[in-house]
């Protein structure tokens, strides 16, 4: 019985990580790993540069977590949505 709970639990944890991002960032998180990668952000913001992404990626792990997305928005570094 307990074995059947593991996949559900794992899914719940993964979903929780994804939902930790706010809605706009979560929409960018196409593989639902809870982080926005350069490629994921680039697909919505074609004019994104490596330099801008690096400035957003404050811990330099190559991914934007919720705190980095929030910080980027707060400081105005987050690329504006080309779709308005
Ligand atoms: Ca992702
Ligand atoms: Ca990061």
Structure report:
The chain is mainly α. The protein has a single domain (2-75), classed as Recoverin, domain 1 (Orthogonal Bundle), CATH 1.10.238. It is built from five helices and two strands. The protein has helices spanning 2-19, 23-28, 38-44, 50-56, 66-75, and strands spanning 36-37, 63-64. It has a two-stranded antiparallel sheet with strand order 1-2. The longest helix has 18 residues, at 2-19. It is elongated, with a radius of gyration of 15 Å. The mean pLDDT is 80. The structure holds calcium ion (2 copies). One calcium ion (CA) binds at residues 29, 31, 33, 35-37, 40.
Q: What are the SSEs and their pairings?
A:
Elements: H1 2-19, H2 23-28, E1 36-37, H3 38-44, H4 50-56, E2 63-64, H5 66-75
Antiparallel strand pairs: 1-2
The structure holds calcium ion (CA) (2 copies).
Keywords: Signal
Protein name: EF hand
Signal peptide: 1-20
The major sheet is characterized as:
2 strands, antiparallel
Strand order of the largest sheet: 1-2
Tally of alpha and pi helices: 5
* Cα end-to-end separation: 49 Å
The CATH class = Mainly Alpha
Any guess at the CATH architecture?
Answer: Orthogonal Bundle
Return Rg in Å. Answer: 15 Å
Q: What distinguishing features does this structure have?
A:
single chain; binds calcium ion; 84 residues; mainly alpha; Recoverin, domain 1; 5 helices
How would you summarize what this structure contains?
The chain has 84 residues and is mainly alpha-helical.
